[in-house]
Specification:
Keywords: Amino-acid biosynthesis, Aminotransferase, Histidine biosynthesis, Pyridoxal phosphate, Transferase. With 365 residues, the chain is an alpha/beta fold. The protein is built from twelve helices and 13 strands. Bound molecules: 4'-deoxy-4'-aminopyridoxal-5'-phosphate (PMP).
Amino acid sequence: MTKPAPKDWILGISPYVPGKSAADDGRPLVKLSANENPLGTGDAARAALAAATADLATYPDPGAARLREAIAAAHGLDPARVIYGTGSDELLHIAASAYAGPGDEILYVRYGFSVYDIAARRVGATPVVAPDADYATDVDALLAAVTEKTKVVFLANPNNPTGTMTSREEIARLHAGLRPDILFVLDQAYAEYLDGQEDDGGLELAKNASNVFVTRTFSKIYGLAAERIGWGYASVDVIDVLHRIRAPFNVTTAGQAAAVAAVQDTAWIEASRAHNRQWREWLAGEVASLSNHGLRAVPSKANFLLILFDGKLTAEAAMKGLWDEGFATRWLPGQGLPNGLRITIGTEDQVRKVAAKLRAMAEAA
Ligand code: PMP
């Protein structure tokens, strides 16, 4: 019998695997598998969201004017050049759809964010993966992988799942080495976790260059993952193109209101950043002390650590052992890291329990 035939490249897509919140037997777990804010959501954002649910019958502001203005004011940007998406995921997808298609190449690094592969295949483009340098981005390898078919380059900075950071100088060098007709998508989902001096200069580049699209999210430090709001910044021309294909009414009324409050809540942002830095460095130190058992943490500037298990204790066994302590983490065999476990930095109590369990398992292995 005939049936609707999907495009053959669609069948080449492996669906996105979300972070687990339960063990294989269904036990609910504390979710350290999706890089959410362990402190939750700030009071100001929560209150704004609650107030905005009074009118549910009316469509949201399609132009998200207050949200664009609040983002622009917080970052010194032109509100007309801020675009918003149903999560930054939507923005990554529309960037790929607008600039690439069958016969084109979309380039990113090995151990890059898994949505890049889906975004490339979804539009029929060919995903091209450049080798890493000890899990970090290798700008020379990326530049060497550019061909005349390259239309889009995706780079997350800090990167997920590695947490590694590409410096401002290296980002500038990468941009300078890309042809101006290639769209450089700099995905800054974790940028709010950086100290000011660690900034990679992406927004400054996007202000001045015609081919840079920076994306950000409210899902991480702002604690609004449930509301699905991302934003991006680029030239007037790129923003005009992207608006043509974003979904209408793609950010909800309550989400817009909460995000406006969240972007202004600097106390919440700073507290979350300080918490993350303190406990990420503490956990990295604990892992370093287990190096004689084959454990190593990749240097991270994000709100998670990628831990590599190259001794008797395997990443899979560590993941299952952490289930027994009540924690979901992210094992990454599907991303070429069967020896890697990505652990979101939780509350102090959670981080201490995770470290103690890792130590007990490594020493008993
Ligand atoms: N980029 C990176 C690097 C991410 O890790 C994530 C979330 N896991 C996203 C983009 C998408 O986030 P959201 O759609 O929630 O904005």
